[in-house]
Amino acid sequence: MVIKPKIRGFVCITSHPAGCAAHVQEEIAHVAAKGALPGPKRVLVVGSSTGYGLSSRIVTAFGFGADTVGVFFERPSSNGRPASAGWYNTAAFTEAAEAKGLFAGNINGDAFSQEIKDKTVEMIREKLGQVDLVIYSLASPRRTDPETGEVFKSVLKPVGAPFTAKTLDTDKKLIVEQGIEPANEQEIADTVKVMGGEDWVLWMDALKAGGVLADEAATLAYSYIGPEVTHPIYRSGTIGKAKEHLENTAATLRDKGIPAWVAINKAVVTQASSAIPVVPLYVSILFKVMKEKGLHEGCIEQMTRLFAEKYGNGNPETDAEGRIRLDDWEMKPEIQEAVKVIWPTVTTENLEAVTDFAGYQDDFLKLFGFNYDAVDYDAETEPDVPLDA
Predict the structure, then answer these.
(1) Maximum CA pair distance of the chain?
(2) CATH no. for residue 241?
(3) Is position 306 within any domain?
(4) Which residues pair with 189 in a beta bridge?
(5) Residue 222 counted as domain residue
(6) What is the Cα–Cα distance from 380 to 51, expressed in whole angstroms?
(7) Are 27 and 112 in contact (CB under 8 A)?
(8) Number of domains forming the structure of the chain
(9) Which of 14, 126, 180, 228 has its Cα between 20 and 30 A from that of 317?
(10) Model confidence over 211-255: pLDDT tens digits?
């Protein structure tokens, strides 16, 4: 079949296997160009198939030379329908890792469930013995409590007061005003339940109880703070409350004797961030400014810098709150001042002139394996790609 991008709102419902493979190879090449990095040799990545999780797995495998286990929830192809991008990404990663002589174990299922935790422990015990580093990089709109079976759903809402701001309708290329009513207490609690640190602790407890966590094993999770313009819907909103809980969870894990840190990452285009009001417009402006300053980074550049410069092979450079600040370039005063100058001037008419919306769109399509020059998107493509998961 010929596979073209089909976009509905902020989601692309198709993905291209050859394009996703090109995406993975591009990230592998970036890491390989940096040379060997010191780091752990047995790594578990929970949420390993897209975005920061995928890039983390690539850096640890092709930088550290680590054997990895990846946990993800992706859809295979069926009835002529393409698989999800994460499925194709993982298939390409697995092939490349095995060609290099590395173990790449894959577990596809609900990472919030006890069943998947048990399967992961079993695979680690059988294939790796133990793991030295656990990267927790889950992004999900809902979570089923493994004990009660209750389903919790996260929401993207402000807290305390309504929020109205300029935003970008990426589908229609329009600058619009969007108003959002504040979350109630239950919605806040549910969002924390889904996107906070509770499941991170459950993962670490399961690994430790299963005897597959090495004595000196450490763990990392990812968060975001961002600028004031996004705070009402992000850092001060429901998702921000969840991220604060995630960051506080690192201290909880350290109290349990497990070295744990949260890395505060830069704004990038991901499937999750595309859904957040205000963020696509901010990112489009930010990309323009940071590219002009020579400071732009995507997921793989961020994760490479994390492990090459910030992580310190288990002795990371942190801020006063114990967080690893990978957003240090984004939050430079000169970068943020330049964004503030552009922000009020953006209109539908001048969008592409004063922002890097073209770069935003390119990154978005590449998430799903499109816009790669080396791929013939008019050619017949086999959507059924096997993956041992």
Answers:
(1) 59
(2) 3.40.50.720
(3) yes
(4) none
(5) yes
(6) 27
(7) no
(8) 1
(9) 228
(10) 999 999 999 999 999 998 889 888 999 999 999 999 999 999 999
Q: What's CA 109's distance to the chain center, in Å?
A: 17
> Torsions phi, psi of 270, nearest 5?
-130, 170
Residue 25 counted as domain residue: yes
Alpha helix (H) residue ranges in 129-237: 185-195, 198-209
Q: Is 217 helix (H, G, I), strand (E, B) or coil?
A: strand
Q: Given the residues 224, 234, 282, 311, select the one marked as catalytic.
A: 234
Q: What pairs with residue 144 in β-bridges? A: 151
**pLDDT by residue (tens digit) across 276-320?**
888 899 999 999 999 999 999 999 999 999 999 999 888 898 999
Q: Residue 215 has what pLDDT?
A: 94
Token pair recorded at residue 42: 């047995």
Question: What six digits make up the tokens of 363?
Answer: 């990154």
- Which domain covers residue 88, as residue numbers? 7-156+185-278+297-327
In 270-342, DSSP assigns E strands to: 324-325
- Put residue 160 in one of left, alpha, beta given phi > 0 → left and psi -120 to 50 → alpha: left
360 annotated active-site: no
- Which residues lie across from 151 on neighbouring strands? 144
pLDDT mean over 192-198: 97
The answer to whether residues 211 and 125 touch, using CB atoms and an 8 Å cutoff, is yes
Do β-strands 142-144 and 151-153 pair in parallel, antiparallel, or remain unpaired?
Answer: antiparallel
Tokens of 295: 């400071």
Write the pLDDT tens digit of every residue in 67-121.
Answer: 999 999 999 999 889 999 999 999 999 999 999 999 999 999 999 999 999 999 9
Residue pair 73/110 in contact (Cβ under 8 Å)? The answer is yes
DSSP letters of 239-250?
HHHHHHHHHHHH
